[in-house]
């Protein structure tokens, strides 16, 4: 099985950020059911240094689009709900149909960074819908489920898809979700780390149920994107890999 190694960490380069472009307004799957946020100029900045007002009443300085991808059932929707509302969607699993999004504004080093987070359907039958959204994404969170080996084995196929459809400089992070399910775990932390290393991706294990590393994953993405769009040449670069390694909490099962 030959793995394409060209999907190296996007944290290593500093492409010009192109936050949510006006001409590429996100398109909701069901017209009228989702209302994207306000338009943002291609340089990603709205009145730098001064608060701006988004359509939803949220103040922000810069906005980016983040997409959640991975097999059906890995916990994409739950991860987003945990991040946005601080809650866990327990009970019946309701698979996402098409695509949906939620906004959240974060304070990143004194700047308001709005993340427009797109939650995609993992089911194969919606794949063509998802493809259309990749090119507008500034960052991708690629999830597998540590209790589902197939979802881990499919990461390679997801990476191939990302390579085909996403921007070459997209910020990408690998997340192994559901680490609270210690009894059911079938993918070891080391396996996730190894795969991430192979592709040069930042990696963390998360739990939408307990909230472990959920805020951190989104904050890390926001910091990287913000830095790309606003960094002065003299400023030291934000090191996404180091940040995630340093700040990420290791689940209790897997502490040395
Ligand atoms: N134990 C545990 N269960 C989780 C976690 N995250 C999600 N789940 C459960 O896993 C199931 C699937 O979660 P979803 O978030 O709907 O999965 P999804 O990736 O959005 O699936 P699709 O929309 O079909 O692509 C649900 O029953 C959730 O309750 C987690 O961190 N821990
Ligand atoms: Mg879902």
From TrEMBL:
Coiled coil: none
Enzyme Commission designation: 3.6.5.2
Gene Ontology CC terms, in alphabetical order: membrane
Reactions performed catalytically: GTP + H2O = GDP + phosphate + H(+)
CDD domains tied to this protein: Rab26
Residue span of region Disordered: 1-48
Subcellular location: Membrane
Keyword GTP-binding attached: yes
Cleaved signal peptide residues: none
Keywords, sorted A to Z: GTP-binding, Hydrolase, Lipoprotein, Magnesium, Metal-binding, Nucleotide-binding, Prenylation, Protein transport, Transport
Keyword hit for Transport: yes
Cofactor: Mg(2+)
Protein's name according to its UniProt entry: small monomeric GTPase
Originating organism: Rousettus aegyptiacus (Egyptian fruit bat)
Lineage, uppermost ranks: Eukaryota, Metazoa, Chordata, Craniata, Vertebrata
């Amino acid at each position: 099985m030959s793995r394409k190694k060209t999907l190296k960490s996007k944290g290593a380069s500093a492409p010009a950020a192109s936050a949510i472009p006006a001409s590429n307004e996100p398109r909701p799957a069901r017209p009228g059911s989702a209302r994207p946020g306000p338009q943002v100029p291609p340089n990603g900045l709205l009145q730098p240094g001064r608060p701006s007002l988004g359509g939803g009443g949220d103040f922000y300085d810069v906005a980016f689009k983040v997409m959640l991808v991975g097999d059906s059932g890995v916990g994409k929707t739950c991860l987003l709900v945990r991040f946005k509302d601080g809650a866990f969607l327990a009970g019946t699993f309701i698979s996402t149909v098409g695509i949906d999004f939620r906004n959240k504004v974060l304070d990143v080093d004194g700047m308001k960074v709005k993340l427009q987070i797109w939650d995609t359907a993992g089911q194969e039958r919606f794949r063509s819908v998802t493809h259309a959204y990749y090119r507008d994404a500034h960052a991708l969170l690629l999830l597998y489920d540590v209790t589902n080996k197939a979802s881990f084995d499919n990461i390679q196929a997801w990476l191939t898809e990302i390579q085909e459809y996403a921007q070459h400089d997209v910020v990408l992070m690998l997340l192994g979700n559901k680490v609270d399910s210690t009894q059911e775990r079938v993918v070891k932390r080391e396996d996730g780390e190894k795969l991430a290393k192979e592709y040069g991706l930042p990696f963390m294990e998360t739990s939408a149920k307990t909230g472990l590393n959920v805020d951190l994953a989104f904050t890390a993405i926001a910091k990287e994107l913000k830095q790309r769009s606003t960094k002065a040449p003299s400023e030291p670069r934000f090191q996404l890999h180091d940040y995630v390694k340093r700040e990420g909490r290791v689940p209790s099962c897997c502490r040395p």
